[in-house]
Amino acid sequence: MKFLPLLLANIGRKKMRTILTVGSYAVALFLFGLLGVIDMSFNQGLEVAGVDRLIVRNKTSLIMPLPIAYKERLSQIKDVKDVTFASWFGGVYQEPKNFFAQFAIDVDTYRAMYPEFEIPEDQWDAFVRDRQGCIVGRKTLDRFGWKIGDRIPIQATIYRGLWEFNICGVYEARREADDTTQFWFHFNYLNERTPFIKDYVGWYTVRVHNPDKAAEVTKTIDERFANSSFETTTETEKAFMAGFVKQFGNIKLIILIVGSVVMFTLLLITGSNMSLSIRERTNEIAILKAMGFGPTHILTLILAESIGYAVIGGFLGLSVCKLFTLGGDPTNGLLPVFFLDNKTVILGIGITFMVGLISGFIPALIAMRLNIVRALRSI
Amino acid sequence: MANNQQTQESLIAVKNIHKNYTRGSETIEVLKDVNLNIHKGDFVAFMGPSGSGKTTLLNLLGGLDFPTSGHILIDGQDIAGMSSKKLTAWRAQHVGFIFQLYNLIPVMTAFQNVELPLLLTRLSKKERRQHVETALAIVGLSDRMSHYPRQLSGGQEQRVAIARAIVTDPTFLLCDEPTGDLDRKSANEILDLLTRLVNEHEKTLLMVTHDPLAAKNAGTRFHLEKGVLTANSQGEAA
Ligand SMILES: Nc1ncnc2c1ncn2[C@@H]1O[C@H](COP(=O)(O)OP(=O)(O)OP(=O)(O)O)[C@@H](O)[C@H]1O
Ligand SMILES: [Mg+2]
Which of A133, A152, A235, A366 could join A168 in a cystine, given CB atoms 3.0 to 4.6 angstroms apart? Predict the structure, then answer.
């Protein structure tokens, strides 16, 4: 601690260079944070996937339906606790860019399957009573400035016509990573208005008694429906979400590449800054060593300086990123979630620390090994 | 005083020192069989032409470099045989360095510069402050403690460097052309200060200088010529 004035004096030595170094860290970590936010929003489904839930869908394709009669048959399978189903509606509100997911749900069973979504009892009751009722997630409700009681027109794309729904309630999520952009309405309403595809559902969600039994149940289900005209593919909710994310291409890889390039560039900038400033200080380091500062002192001082820049800059960048995400989603609700999670923050701080350490390491090593006599001669 | 040093215990005893530098296939003999005895409280000046090996000798005495052969006994310890780790700790305790170009840390105040060597000791913050204030008072810069080097004249900078060298109360001081970069007036002030350190504060001081006037202040003078040390006036090589 008593070496702190020396450390601070060195950090404050070249104000412009310090600002640029700290700024590089800040910009890089801001970018890193944003990449984390985007990654999170694509993978939020994976984060919050229920460990005891399985998704059963048509083996041919997710867009192919399954008969409603499977509900009964699924609930008879050993270790299955609950079954619910839903269908994708794919409607458009006003214009296509106002995208959000609409599900026609089984009103009797859907809510119990997803306890992470919270809806006030009276709102849910109103929804159950109203055949044209709907429940809207908080984010979508706020995005369009809707209120409970509003009547919302949705233009069907897969089905036909203009559909109108009454907002009976809003659901909120307990966790930040939960998706509150969905729009639910009665499956029965959909089923009645689409006689040409009656009694078919999009997919089933099954809850098992014990998550350890998930693999077994998965197999049993697919075997049960094998060789029928509607064969199934069953997987855990997590696996299903992962497959869903893959549709958008390898987001993780893109983020990894961009992130690595950013960090590598950062390392080059800060590493050469550190080398430069240590080279300018050769003479002073020689004096310190002559005075009796040992290799460990020198190494520690330089690494502390380098890590100091990193931590200050990293903290700044991540803070600005956090503020940015608190300011709201710039895509105006297109991404299901938009927030900087703690995992990204901790990873970011870890990476900054490492970059600081590495960029200071070679200059520190050179300074540590500096020959006093030679350095003093070359003034 | 230098005539009976054979019987008197020396503070610094240099025995048959050789220092060679190899540059490619060529070996340069910079110091040739140097012998030297210095007693506590001596003020010693080394003179000689450029390239004669003065700085090299001082570096060896200060434990900054190792001789090719020979022994350097300081207070009974042979520093020529020490590991560089031990030598680092030894320097912190025993040597105060004063250089021609002062070599202060430009981003630290006079106070902070003088405090630097004390950071390696176990002294408390309060004790360090007292030591620094005492050292700066001795060099007459009590009123310049919070000045940065660039706010000081050359002579003042050198006085800060002297304060830094004496603040740990080392066994001896090594000055390599301490007045080499100063005008006559400032140089005289520095020489007066160094003389006072020897006379009033009982420091042992070894100084390299080109300046015959500066050397006059010393009690003992040695001459180096192509790596060979010879006694001069009252001084005498052992
Ligand atoms: N690292 C080295 N490698 C090779 N030769 C060296 C090295 N260091 C010093 N020398 C040589 O050793 C000789 C003595 O150098 P030194 O610096 O001790 O002389 P000096 O008496 O202090 O000279 P000056 O009065 O110019 O300071 C010089 O010829 C110099 O070129
Ligand atoms: Mg010299």
Answer: A133
